[in-house]
Amino acid sequence: MSAEILAFGGINMGLVTRSARIPEPGETLRGTRFYHSSGGKGATQAVAAARLGARVKMVGRVGNDLFGPVLCAALCRDGVDVGAIAVDEEHASGVGVIMVDPQGQNRVLATYGANLYCGDGELAAVEQGLAQAQVLMLQMEIPFPVSLRAAQYARERGVRVLLDPAPATEVALEDFAHFDIVAPNQTEAEYYTGLAVVDENSARRAAAVLLEWGVGIAIIKMGELGVYFESDQTRGFVPPFAVEAVDTTSAGDAFHGALAVALAEGRDLAAAVRFGAAAGALAVTRPGVQDAMPTRAAVETLLAEN
C-alpha cells in the first residue's frame, strides 16, 4: 500500500554553527563550522516521509524574503507538493539558530515568524488535502488552536492524526483526546506529564498518563535510550540502534516521518515504531536538518543488520 501523507506545520531555515562547546552567558567562542539547512519540524517531517517513498503534501506559510523560495525549493527537490504553502507579505520566514557541540548535542533558538500566522487559509488547504491522506502530521510550531482544528477535521474524515508535541506548549488536558498518536521526547514528556523520563519504566509511567488523557497511542522517544510505545492493545520497547552521533537536531523529525509512512503502509505499531527508530538513528549520523533525512534503502539496510 502506498503512503499518502499530509504535513501541516513549521517551515524554517536552520542556521547551524558547530563549536568545541556551547558558550556560557556573555561569552564569545570561535565556531568551527557554519552552514544553513532548510528545516522546520513540519517541513522536515515532510521530507523524511517523501524520502521513504510517500506522496507528501505540505501545508504552511513562509515569508516574502530570501528564505521563502529556498525553503520551498528544498521541499520540491524531494518531491513534496508545495502548492498549499502560502507566502506571507508581512512576516518573515521562520528561522532556527542551532548550536551543535562535538558530541552532536544541539541547542536551538527558533523564531517562527510567518508560521505563527497560519489560519483559515491553511485550514482550507488541510481540508482539501485530507481527501487523499492516510495520516496527518502535526507539530507545535504553528498556533495550537489551528492544529487542533486540523486534527478535528482529520478525525471526522477517518484520517489518522500524529502529533509531535514539540516545542513543548501548554495544552488543555481534554485536547489530547483529539490526537490518535502523541510522541514526545524525554523533555517534552516531563513537561506534559510532570514525570522525569530516564528509562523504560519511567517512560511507561509517562505513556500511561497520556493514555489516561485520551491519547490513542503514546510513544516516548528517548534518544540513545530507545523508544517506548503503548496503546490499549499493545505495548513495547525498541532498543537503540548503535550509531555514531554527529548531529541530533532532526532525529525526532526523521522518526515521525518514518512512523507516518509505516503506519500508512499498514505496518503494525511495533514494526512502525521500529521503522521510525531506525530512521531517527540514521538522521543523527549526518549534519543538517532536512539534509540529514535518510533514504528508504538506508533504513531498510539498518533494520536488516539489526
Question: How would the blueprint of this fold be written?
Answer:
Elements: E1 4-8, E2 12-18, E3 33-39, H1 41-51, E4 55-63, H2 67-77, E5 81-88, E6 94-100, E7 106-111, H3 120-129, E8 135-138, H4 144-156, E9 160-163, E10 181-182, H5 186-193, H6 200-212, E11 217-221, E12 227-231, E13 235-238, H7 251-264, H8 269-283, H9 296-305
Parallel strand pairs: 1-4, 1-8, 2-6, 4-5, 8-9, 9-10, 10-11
Antiparallel strand pairs: 2-3, 6-7, 11-12, 12-13
Explain what this protein looks like in three dimensions.
The protein has a 9-stranded mixed β-sheet with strand order 5-4-1-8-9-10-11-12-13, sandwiched between helices. Helix 8 crosses helix 9 (296-305). The mean pLDDT is 95. Strand 11 (217-221) and strand 12 (227-231) form a beta hairpin. The chain is built from 9 helices and 13 strands. 34% of the residues lie in helices and 24% in strands. It is an alpha/beta fold and 306 residues long.
